[in-house]
Amino acid sequence: MRARFSRDRVELRLPGADDLALRGAAYVLTESAYAAIGGRRGARVVALWPKPGVKLKTLAEDFAREYDNQLLRWKLLRLNRKVSAAVLARAMALRIDAGGGAAEPQALGLSDDRKLEIEAALSEAAKEKWDPLGIARPWEELRGGGA
User: Fold this and answer.
1) Quick one: which H or E segment has residue 37?
2) Environment class of residue 3 by beta-carbon count within 10 Å: exposed (0-12), middle (13-18) or buried (19+)?
3) What's the half-sphere exposure (Cβ side, CA atoms, 13 Å) at 98?
4) What are φ and ψ of residue 48, in 5° steps?
5) Phi/psi zone of residue 47: left (φ > 0), alpha (ψ -120 to 50 degrees), beta?
């Protein structure tokens, strides 16, 4: 990875870059930088513009470290794909063997009193409109009558 610094940004050239790891690293840094990914597959360029209070050199180092982390993350995911698929297939087969469908509440081992408590809590929560910031309003109300 080669870095080229200018006054307001750093450009990182990544020959043979893994696209998923590259995008993941750029996403992780969204709190400290704006990112643009360019170039062709196999010759990617990432331009990073720091947000206020972030140094360019720190940004380049953070991106390099996060890119390495994302490479490892995606490598592990790819290596474990067959294992994950086998576990999922086995779980689904066991569920089908057990009669399929969604689990019934009695299968969870809950007492009748506990089921009633849960039903009461859910119905109470459904009645409340939880909106601590006061932002859950219809579009028409926000824009005065519609589009």
Assistant:
1) strand 33-40
2) middle
3) 11
4) -120, 125
5) beta
Task: Give the Cα separation of 121 and 104 in Å (integer).
Answer: 19
Are 62 and 9 a contacting pair, CB within 8 Å? Answer: no
Cα gap 112→94, rounded to integer Å: 27
Return the structure tokens found at 7.
């006054």
Q: Which amino acid is at 120?
A: A
> Taking the model in full, what pTM does it have?
0.59
Fold of 2-79: Gyrase A; domain 2 (3.30.1360)
Torsion angle of the four alpha carbons 80, 86, 89, 93, in this order, in degrees rounded to the nearest 10: -150
Instruction: Report the residue count for the chain.
Output: 147
**Rounded to an integer, what is the distance from CA 28 to the centroid of its chain?**
9
pLDDT in tens, 40-99: 877 899 999 999 999 999 999 999 999 999 999 999 999 988 888 888 888 888 877 766
